[in-house]
Amino acid sequence: MMRTDEERNGVDMSCDGTFWHALDRLAAGAEIVIDRPRGSRHPDFPEFVYELDYGYLRNTVSSDGEGVDVWLGSDPSRRVTGAVCTVDLVKRDAELKLLLGCTADDCTVIRRFYRTSLSAAHILLREDVPASSEEDDRV
Predict the structure, then answer these.
(1) Backbone phi and psi for residue 90, each to the nearest 5 degrees, phi listed first
(2) How far apart are CA 105 and CA 88, in angstroms?
(3) How far, in Å, CA of 135 to CA of 128, rounded?
(4) Residue 134 has what DSSP assignment?
(5) Run of H or E residues at 19
(6) Structural domains of the chain, with CATH
(7) Residue 91: what pLDDT?
(8) Is the torsion defined by CA of 125, 126, 129, 130 positive or negative?
């Protein structure tokens, strides 16, 4: 039987098979890099201001070949509270971005960020995250 690098290095990366547990393990095993801090402007579209910290998980890979993107909310726990599925018609791509420590108010900010004529987003929240007044799916 072939062993993974994690098994050889004594790191338990086992998962109970649930979506949220797998995301917890992915986030827990990676360093969070904030490359667009709260208050900064998007490098290509300066009219977009990041109201929350935005970055990626180092040593992970997303569908765009870069690290898995993350929004870092105001809850200091930094646990995976949800995920946002985005569609960007300019880049012609779709991605899954993790929400770490995001409250209901943070989710409202994130929805507003993606609400343009050339992008769309839908947020999936864990069942135990307090609801906001806007649309979301609990899974």
Answers:
(1) -70, -50
(2) 23
(3) 16
(4) S
(5) helix 19-28
(6) 33-138 (3.90.80.10)
(7) 87
(8) positive
The token pair that represents 46 in the structure block: 């300066």
- Give the DSSP per-residue string, 36-78: E-TTPBPSS-TT-B-SSEEEEETT---TTSSPEEEEE-S-TT-
Three-state SS at 112: helix
In whole angstroms, give the CA distance from residue 106 to residue 129: 12
Helix (H) or strand (E) holding 35: strand 32-36
Retrieve residue 48's tokens.
């977009």
By residue count, the chain amounts to 139
Residues with Cβ within 8 Å of residue 64, at least 6 apart in sequence? 93, 95
pLDDT string in tens for the chain (139-residue length): 444 444 434 445 555 668 899 999 999 989 999 999 999 999 988 999 999 999 999 999 998 899 999 999 999 989 999 999 999 998 899 999 999 999 999 999 999 999 988 899 999 999 876 655 555 554 4
**Radius of gyration of the chain from its Cα atoms, rounded to whole angstroms:** 16
- The partner residues of 86 in beta bridges, in order of sequence, read 95, 121
- The amino acid at 22: A
